[in-house]
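Students often ask what a 'structure token' actually looks like in practice. Rather than answer in the abstract, let us consider Autotransporter outer membrane beta-barrel domain-containing protein, a protein of 1143 residues. Its sequence is given first.
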Amino acid sequence: MNKTALTKTYTKDIQNSCLNSKKIVLSLATISFLASCTHATLTPEIKTYEETNRHAKARSGLQSRNSNNETINNLQTLTKTISGTGNTLVIESSGTITISNDGQQAVNFQPNSSTSTFLNKGTLIGGNNTASVQLGANTNNGVTIETFDNQGIIGNGSSKFGVTVWGGGSKDNPKSIINNFSNSGTIHSNTGESIYFGNAKISSFVNSGTIKSKQGTGVNISQGTSIENFNNTRTGIIEGKRMGVNVRSTINTFVNDGLIAATNDGIQINANVKTLINKGTIKGDAISIRSLGGTIETLINEGIMDGESAGIYMSRSLVKTLTNSGTINQNNSATWSAGIKLENGSIIENIINTGSIRSNAFGISVTGGKFGTLTIKDGGQVYGKYSAIGVGRSQTLGDLYIDGRSNNGTVSGIYSEEHGILLENNSRTQKIELKNGGIIKGNIDGIRLINSASLSGEMILSGEGSRVEGGRGVGILNRSGKIEGSIKVEDGATVTATSNRAIANSGSGSITGGITVSGKNTKLEGNIINTDNASIGSDIKIEGGAKVEGGLVNQGNGSISGSVQVSGGSSIDSITNEGNGAISGSITVDKDSKLDSITNTSTSSTGISGSITNNSDNKLEISNSGNIGGKIESTGSADMVISNSNGGTISGGISSSGSGSTSISNSQGSTINNGITVSGSAQVEISNQGSVGKDENGNTVTNNGSGSVGIKDWLVSTDKNTGKLNTVVIGGSRAFNVKVENITVDQSNVDLEELNDINNIISGVNQNNIGNIGTNGSGEISLSFDPITGKLTTDFNLNASISGATFRSLISTTSRRSTFIDNVMGNSMQSFALASSSKSQSIAMSEKGNLYADASDYIKSDLNNGSYGSNKEHSLFILPYTSSQNVELSLNEESKGHTKGTIIGYSTLKDSGIYGVYAGYEDTKMGSTYFDINNRTYYAGLKYFNTLFTTEKGQEVYIKAQGKAALIKNDLTEKIGNNEAKAEPNSYAYGVNTALGMNFISNKDIFSPEIGLAYEGGYTEAFSMKDTIGQATVKGGERTYANYLNLFSTKTSLTWFRDWLPNLKTSVELGAKFNINPKVEAEARFGNIKVSDEFDLPRVQKFVSTSFIVPVNEAFYFSLNYNGMFDKDGNTHTGFAQFNYLW
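Now compare that with the structural description of the same chain:
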């Protein structure tokens, strides 16, 4: 500190100036002098304050007094009390006042005293329970001091307070007044404040030294105090445990160039501060600046603010303008914490950040209050682990501006490990603007609005390099929030997310102003998603060369009220409308723009209400299974593929007027209203299995173009009530150029009279351009057209009808079941004959190669002879079985099915032979494109077996016979398109068969040839097909008359048996069955037309059987078996394991 600020120093020769005479120190006013205003000179008796003190020291080693002026340069132990007026007190560096009395101060300025200068260069230590220096008295009158200057030590940490300044709070008890308060030394307290101001008025406070409190506050500016200028210089240190500086009264200007630090809060404010500037460091182990009810007009940080829980914390407080060009740090990761935090109604009207705000929790957070305008520019950055900017429940952020332009190369932006910007429940924001390369980045979401959070204005993202980046969440997420303005991404900005979700509007979220993506190099890297019950209330525009590297997905109950426009050379991959989503406007793709595909699977009644127009040069694929309310139109040179499926509807029709090719597919159950119109030079190919309505001129297809129009396939539908055909009407100036490759008549409920005239099916087309004509049934009704004569004829084929399918299935399963029963019963019965044979290696080799091969065919007789004990007289088996089989139900289609069943049989040995009885149940299910044949069969029968004789060479000749019957309950289904008809007739099967065989034995091998003859009869009740789903039958119904079946067949087979070990046997059998009369006659009625037909059953059935047999003991054996059967109509494969029991 310059001494001229503390003392009055003069030269011996003073110029003739009236002003120089006024510089005499007031404390020497008792010295008389005479001076002329013209020739004034200082007399030798008049001394400066310093000179007087020096002379006094020469005269006395203790102290010197001259009126109220005093200098101390020795050790004293009593309080120095200052009272009265006109005082000056100087403590030299050798001066010390140390007080041992706990309640006494080193220096006490009494109320109502006035002092021009207080200068301490020495040491002042008060009692342990009071201040080292006290000015005034609590609730009493204050003091007046022109200059308070500490260059030494006040307190050494032992006195409770360092300096206390007291004053009154009324006219009768005036405040203390200090014009200049400066500290370049040390002020150190113990439990109390180092400096306390109460009811004081300070013009200037300057600290360039150290102010420190062990347990309390560094500087406490209490109520009733005002400080014009508070300055902590670059060398200044203010430290406290509770607070560095506690501002409870008004400060006009607060400047920190040094260090303000505390264990709790660096600075705490609950008063008015006009300007607070930090160029140094403010550090709080809790909070750097805490405002509790305070008001700061201007808060400027050019230095460092470092807080453990918050950098700046405000409760019930106001900051009009906060400017940060320095660093604001918050260090812990508690979810309460933030770099800047507002609570309890606090407001920051304007924030300008060009520096750094970093937090391990939230960068800038308002959980109770309001941010006005937040501007991040000139390289400013905000980082928060949970959110860079967080607006809590029901709180407000006004306008947010992020300007990426910077002079130092640092890009302005906000960054977070989770959410860049987080707007929580019911929070409010007016505007978000990102420009000039600014960044908003969150590793989950870039921008996140949730649960009624609102953005009343626009979200504008613009400029080359500007980016909103999301991670595993979304770039911009509006989950049940409300964006009243629009989202604009323009002029080279990018919105992206690693999840491929650029923008998502979900829950009950709404975007009233729509979405616009515009400008060259502007990109969305990911999808635009509108889902759940969310809504977009205006247009979605992709324009000016912008790119959406993803699609527009509208799903759930999402709604888009505006149109979707792709223009100006822009591109988007796809548009998908699914779930119960609705797009009310049109979809337009302009020239030079690109949309790859449109998919509409929505179940909403509106679906896509508007039209779809493609005027671009890029191929567009449209897939619809919902509702498109408008027209689909291709006007450009691009190709277009339209697929309408799964009940989809295109209400406005389809128009192709450009030069590109158009492919139209309308599947079964789907509808195109208002016809198909072709003009220009377009090449159009049409495939229709659904319904195509007529245009205003009554045309189904109108061709006015110079290109080619081809109908690849067309299903002509039938009126459900009248049975009349919905004629395909070809119109337009070039109708005769339309070519028809294939046309199919829907025979469901068709009036057969309609099939007599080609013009009932298709009209307006050159008949020479008509190719194949048929029906959509199984082939029971066939059409042929002669384009020369124009004659259309109808033929019927019962072999392809439900009649043929039923007989093929029944005969196939009945024949296989008969063979199976013959074998199973024959095996059981022959074991008795083998038991009485003297040849231990002989084996009963009966009919093998049936659908259900039985291991008992191959068990050696030594199972029943002496090697195991007594002979057996009874045989019992229970056999669950299953098989898979292929049968030609529909002509030229092999249909897969399976059979599950159980058979139980018993045989007994008598002198006249072996007699057996059996019963069983099986369930068969078969299906094909046009038919389902399911039946349940209950069967029973009798079996006889006997050995006729044995030749001299040991060959055994045997005979067997069988009678059987079965009840078959059928469940028949006929399928025409999506329509079905059913019938449930009963069938009855019966038959007899006999066979003769011989066993040739060679060591361990046995070869057994066998021949047989069989009769199989059957009867199926007459039945009518009844429509169950839609109308599958022709108009007038379909009936199949009763059918009788009488089939004769022969059979031959050869079996090789090998006895490898006593407990291991194998056999292989090959054979064939020959049907003597394989023709079956049938009669039916279609409408009023009776039809009779004859169709062939397979003449030859081939079979192969293999067995792996393990005898267990004399009563049980186990076998693993396979059987395969093959004919021209199908095949069957069966494998199973079996146990048999004999006694």
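One point worth highlighting: The longest strand covers residues 956-976. Ask yourself how you might have guessed this from the sequence alone, and why that guess would often be unreliable.
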